[in-house]
Structure formats: structure tokens, C-alpha cells
Amino acid sequence: MSQHDVLMLSTVANMLRLYADMLNVIAGIEEASGRKADELLKELLSPQSLAKLSQKLPSDVFGEFMSALLRLATALASVQNPLALPSNEKRRLAFELSEIAKSIENVVERLKAMKQ
Fold first, then answer.
1. How far, in Å, CA of 88 to CA of 96, rounded?
2. Contact status, residue 106 vs residue 114, Cβ threshold 8 Å
3. Rounded to 5 degrees, what angle do the CA atoms 36, 52, 61 make?
4. Angstrom distance (rounded) from CA 110 to CA 59
5. Rounded to an integer, what distance in angstroms lies between the CA atom of residue 89 and that of residue 85?
6. Residue 48 and residue 51: Cα distance in Å, rounded?
7. What was the pLDDT predicted at 78?
């Protein structure tokens, strides 16, 4: 087996581990809520829920959340199959998704601080 083959197998194993971790997180959310994750996301992101959030949250927190959602929609709008993207586009998308995740994590931290 070549060094390239070993690297590819290692990459596949890492990808499977990441996918398994994601599925475990989703399963935990579903078990805790008693509902499917896609239902929860649809509810959270529905216009009605967003309108309620806009009334409950400070405008800067809501604005940061909406900005992250718009950036996510924009980043994913033109991506049918991320694995088919050229490597430079994969890296660009990965960077953008990481930045969006940071923004959402910041919103979560601010919400936690508000509850204390």
C-alpha cells in the first residue's frame, strides 16, 4: 500500500469519526426533546419563531444571530455537493462555516450570560 493510500484511509477514518460525532449530538438532542432535529430546526428558524426572538432578545444579540443565519444561507445557497467543490472552494466554505459557527457560539454565550 502506498503512502497516498494510507493517507486516504486515514482521512476516511477521520471523516467517519466526525460524522459519527455529529450523529451522536443530533441523537442526544432528539432524545432530550422527544422530537426530530429537523423539526426543531424548522421551528427555531420559522418566521414566527424569529419574530418572537426579535421581541425577546436585545437587538444586538438578535442582529448577530440573524447575520449568522444570512451568512449561512448565502454560503450554502450555491453548494449542491461540497465534496465536488475544488479544494480551494472547500477551504473557503470551511472557513466561512467556521466563522459562522463562532458567531452562533458567541450568541449562545451571550444568551447564557443574560440568564444568569
1. 12
2. no
3. 95
4. 12
5. 6
6. 5
7. 84
Where do we find the cell 432530550?
32
Q: Is 54 strand, coil or helix?
A: helix
Taking alpha carbons only, the member of 23, 26, 25, 4 closest to residue 15 is 23
pLDDT in tens, 62-77: 999 999 999 999 999 9
CA 82, chain centre distance (Å)? 14
Geometric angle at alpha carbon 75, from 70 and 78, rounded to 5° = 120
Q: Hunting for cell 422530537 — which residue is that?
A: 35
8 A C-beta contact, residue 103 and residue 64: yes
Give dist(CA 45, CA 92) in Å, integer.
25
CA pair distance 49, 47, nearest whole angstrom: 6
